[in-house]
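Renewal narrative, Specific Aim 1. Our central claim is that a sequence can be written position by position from structural information alone. The example that follows is taken directly from our test logs and has not been curated for this report. It begins with the structure tokens describing the chain, in the order in which they were read.
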């Protein structure tokens, strides 16, 4: 899953990004079709991503019952507040003792 509104590159598509959130901005039909036609992306890669998404939906019973919940808002201030709290609680800061995390950037270090 993408990190919400960040640019989805071909590298990310090939590296296993299956779902772009909150909507398909870069992994849209036109973008992916063009990548397949240029030979930058194999159609089998898209097939595999769709399989993984559908397997998860099946695993959680999404297709076993009608999806009729119309009262759940797509965007709510309450939901955003909960998501922000969870994100804050889930943050992990690393102390780079003995320079174990290699990075030339002193502001942030990408995880391998």
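The sequence written for that structure reads:
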């Amino acid at each position: 899953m993408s990190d919400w509104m960040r640019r989805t590159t071909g590298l990310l598509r090939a590296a296993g990004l299956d779902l772009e959130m909150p909507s398909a901005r870069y992994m849209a039909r036109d973008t992916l079709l063009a990548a397949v036609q240029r030979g930058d992306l194999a159609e089998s890669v898209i097939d595999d991503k769709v399989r993984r998404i559908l397997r998860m939906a099946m695993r959680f019973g999404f297709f076993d019952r009608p999806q009729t919940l119309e009262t759940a808002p797509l965007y709510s201030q309450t939901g955003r507040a909960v998501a922000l709290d969870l994100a804050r609680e889930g943050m992990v800061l690393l102390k780079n003792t003995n320079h174990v995390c290699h990075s030339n950037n002193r502001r942030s270090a990408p995880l391998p």
